[in-house]
Design brief:
The protein contains 13 helices and no strands. It is mostly helical. The N and C termini lie close together (11 Å). The C terminus is likely disordered.
């Protein structure tokens, strides 16, 4: 694949992670007045409407198998991932959820050889994974004690697994040749459909007065328009350019972005352990991305 094409994929991945690195903070603050499923539904309803406004034409899959891929992507990447993550945040610290979700690249690497031809990680990937996870742990927990909750930890681990499945599905959808925005909107549609049972089973009673509070409205717009509509499109673009395994390793950077944003916006200085962790994350990302003697993955249609 040409270097310019891979560069655009890396830039798209960085853009996505920049937004996603701050979403834990926004979600945690919204949980003070909204339930996990209320945040989830409102966020992706806004995202769906934004993508519909940008690209109003209809996507018409040619085969039932293609429709299944969109439905599975919506179930994994929208409904299950964010339900698991949002509920996990009610049981444990945001930093704990962040560090556990960061194992998603490992799940992706283990699933890719089974479902994607050519994406077989080598020794460099696993060395990078070990360095990055050590760095994520230092960044997340280097400033104080660790407060783990088994329920929150298990839900975060499930979130990491279903996100790996979503990345695999996104890679497969990328080979169909459809418009990226239309593909993302289709996945959002199915994500909202699969979310409907949860609205009846969980605490879903949003009121207009609560939703229109400036802090809540701002947080939902940030999550819906930025972290959902825009970032799911750029993530899908990056997966098409780089592959599922190479793109997912950028998740290692989420805690680093969170710490950097806290230092710039809130004036919170990172601890020495966190600084060492940042260096390990960057080293892990470099090692995981370097291909060395690994077989190159097959070029995909953009």
């Amino acid at each position: 694949m040409p270097d310019s094409s891979r560069l655009s994929g890396h830039l798209a991945a960085f853009f996505t992670i920049f937004f996603w690195g701050t979403t834990f903070v926004f979600t945690k603050s919204l949980l003070a007045s909204l339930s996990p499923v209320e945040i989830l539904f409102c966020r992706f309803a806004l995202g769906y409407l934004a993508l519909l406004a940008i690209r109003p034409r209809r996507l018409k899959p040619e085969q039932p198998r293609e429709e299944f891929l969109f439905a599975a992507a919506g179930l994994c990447g929208v409904t299950l991932y964010f339900l698991f993550e949002n509920v996990a945040l009610t049981f444990t610290l945001a930093s704990n959820v962040g560090v556990i979700v960061a194992v998603s690249p490992l799940f992706t690497a283990l699933l890719a050889p089974r479902f994607l031809d050519g994406e077989r990680p080598g020794a460099r990937f696993f060395a990078g994974f070990a360095a990055a996870i050590a760095g994520v742990a230092l960044v997340s927990w280097g400033g104080g004690g660790v407060a783990l909750d088994l329920r929150g930890s298990l839900l975060a681990l499930l979130a990491a697994l279903v996100w790996a499945c979503y990345s695999i599905l996104t890679r497969k959808i990328g080979t169909l040749g459809y418009d990226n925005i239309l593909c993302t909107r289709r996945a959002f549609f199915y994500g909202l459909v699969f979310m409907i049972p949860a609205l009846f089973l969980m605490d879903f009673h949003p009121t207009l007065a609560v939703l229109l509070r400036p802090a809540n409205l701002g947080g939902l717009l940030y999550l819906g328009l930025g972290a959902s509509a825009a970032c799911f499109v750029t993530w899908g673009f990056a997966v098409r350019r780089l592959g599922a395994v190479a793109t997912t390793v950028y998740i290692y950077l989420v805690p680093l972005v969170t710490v950097a944003a806290s230092a710039l916006v809130l004036g919170e200085r990172p601890t020495p352990a966190a600084l060492v962790g940042m260096a390990l994350i960057l080293a892990g990302l470099f090692l995981s991305e370097k291909r060395g003697g690994q077989p190159k993955e097959k070029e995909m249609a953009a």
